Amino acid sequence: MKAKKQRLILALLGLGAVVGAGLLAASGLKTEASFFFAPGDVAGIDLPLGKAVRLGGMVADKSIRHDADGVTIHFVVEDGKAKVPVVFKGIAPDLFKENSGVVAEGEFRADGSFVASNLLAKHDERYMPPELDGKMHKTGSLKS
Amino acid sequence: MHAYANPARFLKIARPLTPVCVGVGLLLVLLGSYVGLFLTPPDYLQGDTVRIMYIHVPAAWLGMGGWTGIAIASIVQLVWRHPLAGVAGRAIAAPGALFTAICLLTGSIWGRPTWGTWWEWDGRMTSMLVLLFLYFGYMALANASDERTTVSRATAIFGIVGAINIPIINRSVVWWNSLHQGPSITLRGSSISSEILWPLLPTVIGFSLLFGGVVLMRMRANLAEAKVEARMRRMAAS
Amino acid sequence: MNHWAFIIAAYGLTALGTAGVLLWSYLDMRRAEKAVADLETRK
Question: What is the ipTM of this complex?
């Protein structure tokens, strides 16, 4: 009976140590493991210029503007803390819409704007039938 | 604890339970899939692709639930030396890996029309891929030893250590900015409209029952093989 | 882009995988339990 108890304590201690180490490592990786920068993350710090990065956030309301050439799109990405103007040349995914999430791949320019080479649509965790849209759908943030 | 240690007693329960799990599981999966494919409304933003959820979510749950099962079996094996724990861990690995792979594949198929990409090295996707490789490692370790009805101590320890990935998968979309959306179903409720959500219940329960049925069948096969081997050895010795 | 192609691919893949593992486990179990039954009748 005693040996069994010893093994149980040992197993639980081991499990606790592993979980602790994992959580510590995961929280330490906070910025490295993030898929994208939000506008608020880069506000007030030195912009990572000349490096391929991703910028994610909400496409600001009424900010999408198409150039006359038909392929250049201007829009603003915001996260409630800051806004970044983005220019993108190419075909946007179907779900790229105003007041919806977006992840842009590209790089920052010195003036604080962002040049995207690729767009990914990011939708939120809410799913609803079309007739409810507008009544319930008012997205304010990236996460719930 | 040891009430079911006797394989004969386990088989007495497992034999009638297997067809029930498989039968009811198939029924629920077919029902949920039919409703999810043809009767529920599409999503306002994603359209019909939201229907992939009804199989993607159960697959994700079973991939993660499977490893949780392996971790529990490993602890039971190491602490209580329960003779069936190793058999259970061994039986869970293959279906667990399969559903993890299904989760990754259906996620990829879902990501293309909605996000505009098949694959990104996002926290959620990467940690799920790590889970698949953990399953492969567990299976390789389990098959490396001659033991048939249990797994080696090293394999059981691997099962426990690998469990750290489970909370990481679960929290990945909360801790890190990710392309994958945050959790829809939390303790505070669901952000999926009930008309879209409800077929998920039969498919999650149905796939879980099928998973249970597969585990039971694989445990029975394993125990039967061990019995034959033991009998052969005794016959050869006498 | 037709969304149904993606939906059918996802469901088809899942059906194939699930049916496959069910069938494989069942046949494996039947073969093993039959071997036990054979041994028992032989002795």
Answer: 0.92
